[in-house]
Design a protein that fits this description.
291 residues; alpha/beta; 12 helices
């Protein structure tokens, strides 16, 4: 029988959200059979965090949850960064679960000394930047469980993961959240929704949706297999990007009624031309409520 990959899950400054999200993976029973979790903070494993801190274990994959703080944040009696760095040097692959571990995220907004592993927001100056070559970033707030399952399985099968400039898997982050959104026809005809939670209308023009310039497969690999933020009537908040979180999340910043930020790769001149044409039409079918 082939040796199961050994996974160690360690936490920095975190709310536990990524751990809780991972436990919602539909394949969880199979994951626990295929991988040997040396330690995970939320379910029973063969070792305690104290034993992880006081001994040295051979591991294949280190999963980091939460932002990194060099001093002043202890777990099991030792600095959390010291513990994470020790196992980062041993692991064959490091997976950053969530935006905090990837870029600093909300944790960095609270304490400017916090960084991600390879990156500090957009800059490649994270506290574990020296290990960048074996880091895979899976930003999100929280992480989508299927994204982590994908990386674990690719590792188990010895497959190479193509990554982008922020070390995110292209297979998962090569799209914008806008792709696959059920509201795209409303976006095309510039019809905004009248409120949160409604099935009709686009959330981009007035409600701050960042889907058109946020990388992620949320509308292709649905949460729980059934839904996403935009399908439920909530704007995308850009949680897979290095600058997350922005301010005034549920308001669209405008300059003379024009969105301040353009959809990814769309020139402003082209956007204004398309907008002018679309607004010249009134599509009655889209102006009506569905329910």
């Amino acid at each position: 029988m082939a040796r199961r990959p050994r996974v160690l899950w360690l936490q920095g400054v975190t709310c536990n959200g990524d751990s809780h999200s991972f436990l919602n993976a539909s394949e969880m029973p199979q994951i626990l059979e295929k991988f040997h979790f040396v330690y995970h903070p939320l379910f029973e494993t063969g070792y305690t965090l104290e034993s992880i801190a006081n001994e040295y274990f051979d591991i294949d994959i280190l999963v980091i949850e939460g932002g990194l703080l060099k001093k002043g944040f202890k777990r099991a009696g030792v600095e959390s960064f010291e513990l994470i760095e020790r196992y980062a040097s041993i692991a064959k692959q490091i997976v950053c679960a969530g935006n905090c571990a990837s870029f600093g995220g909300i944790s960095r907004k609270m304490d400017r000394n916090v960084t991600g592993a390879a990156f500090c927001e957009q800059e490649p100056t994270g506290l574990l930047a020296s290990y960048s070559s074996k880091i895979i970033n899976l930003p999100g707030c929280p992480i989508h469980p299927q994204w982590l399952v994908y990386v674990l399985e690719m590792n188990r099968h010895g497959q190479t993961i193509e990554i982008d400039e922020f070390r995110r898997p292209v297979e998962l982050y090569g799209y914008t959240v806008h792709e696959g959104c059920t509201r795209n026809e409303y976006f095309e005809w510039k019809i905004d929704t009248k409120g949160f939670g409604m099935k009709e209308g686009c959330l981009f023009y007035e409600h701050g949706c960042q889907g058109p310039f946020t990388r992620g497969s949320c509308n292709k690999i649905l949460w729980g297999g059934v839904s996403s933020k935009t399908r439920a009537g909530m704007p995308c908040i850009g949680c897979t990007e290095p600058g997350f979180p922005s301010t005034n999340l549920f308001e669209t910043k405008t300059l003379m009624s024009i969105p301040a930020k353009m959809p990814l790769g769309v020139p402003k001149r082209a956007y204004l031309t398309m907008t002018g044409i679309a607004k010249a039409f009134k599509i009655e079918r889209l102006e009506k409520k569905k329910f």
